[in-house]
Amino acid sequence: MKRILVVFGGRSVEHDVSIITAINSIIKPLRLTKKYQVEPLYIAKDGRWYWDEALSNIETYSSGKIDSLIKKLKPVNLSFENGLVISNGKSFNSKKAQIDIVFPALHGTYGEDGDLMGLLEMAGVAYVGCGVAASAIAMDKVIAKQLAIANKIPTSNFLFYRSKDYKDNPVTVLNEINTHLNWPLFVKPTHLGSSIGISRVSSNDELGNAIELAFHYDDLVVVEEEVSNLIEVTLPIIGNETPEPAYLEKPTLQKADFFDFDAKYLRGGKKGSKNGQASSSYSEVPAQLPKKLYKAAEELGVNVYKTFGLSGIARVDMLIDSKLNKVYFNEINPLPGSLYSHNFQKFGLSNVELVEKLLFFAMEKFEQKNKLNSSFSTNYLKQF
Fold it and tell me: 230-370 domain in CATH 3.30.470.20?
């Protein structure tokens, strides 16, 4: 029986969303199969790692018991001597577990951005999802847009600024934005997901505040033009070298809104979202678009997936000008909240089937990589 380590929580503003993804969309369906030994590993907001069965119970977090629980637990020890081994102490009687596959459920910084993947690569253990480089690029909106442009993938016009540049010359920055970009604009932290810190602005009075808000979460901010006659769509995709797209999905919002954190997870109270993912009442699956336009968006999404070297699972967000029938790349989510299981379910893939396919892709990628030679014998050191 393979032992699966589900890693979640983390030092990220998306900490709470990560918990829901892990418990509802990964741990529960994996345990339903009765094929795997599933181990929950929770990373607290201070960065310490904990391993305990109670961490797989959502009530531990919703009731606030998590704080008292982790005070009683010992932080996890990691060993990379023979793959990945976790233990809850250093004594002879400490509980230990050899991990076969890691299933990351960390959203945002220190996880989804490639940091965790680098650690797992060094440990030599199979893991679900995108690799180090693909994760890092996908979570950097500026580099992602630059890579898209280099590969002739349409994207909206944009500028980007570092915190110091703006603090030193705010007037220069605002003038440059007004000179080179057309209103309205979106202002975004470069490395975050779940639409946190994003603002839509239509005047100079709003622009400065929006930039300050984005810099509260990140030291690099992107300012981009809004696509006219906008239709937002998103495409969850799974697979390695042969991507398998699910349905194109379209948020159903009022014209003045955009698909922010509130719309995705909170609007409508506790029942406004299901399993911590976008409420079905705020999205249309599949998106009702003209057949040719639907196909164009799907093809662009798959092209992005291949071009960026994504693997396992990712979600490609796109923007459509409904009058010009033109599709633009917007951004990539290399670990969609709750794995976008609501979409895959409508596509005919149950939660259980989805997580099992992702484990298969993880092992496929791991085995292919292990076939490569990672050492090279030389006489170089003999000259010293």
Answer: yes
Whether the CB-CB separation of 192 and 138 falls below 8 Å is answered with no
**Span 26-57, pLDDT tens digits:** 999 999 999 999 999 999 999 999 999 999 99
Q: Which of 88, 82, 11 is nearest to 50 (CA)?
A: 88
- The CATH superfamily holding the domain 157-225 is ATP-grasp fold, A domain (3.30.1490.20)
Assign 7 to helix, strand or coil.
Answer: strand
Cβ neighbors of 124 (< 8 A, separation 6 or more) are: 80, 83, 84
Write phi, then psi, for 38 (nearest 5 degrees): -100, 125
Evaluate whether 112 touches 104 at the Cβ level (below 8 Å).
Answer: yes
Q: How far apart are CA 285 and CA 241, in angstroms?
A: 25
CB 84 within 8 A of CB 4: no
Cβ atoms of 231 and 319 closer than 8 Å? yes
pLDDT in tens, 256-283: 455 454 544 444 444 444 444 444 567 8
Which residues are paired to 194 by β-bridges?
Answer: none
pTM for this prediction:
0.90
* Strands of the 84-87 sheet, one edge to the other: 77-79, 84-87, 96-99
Backbone phi and psi for residue 283, each to the nearest 5 degrees, phi listed first: -150, 155
CATH topology of domain 3-129: Rossmann fold (3.40.50)
Rounded CA separation 122/102 (Å): 13
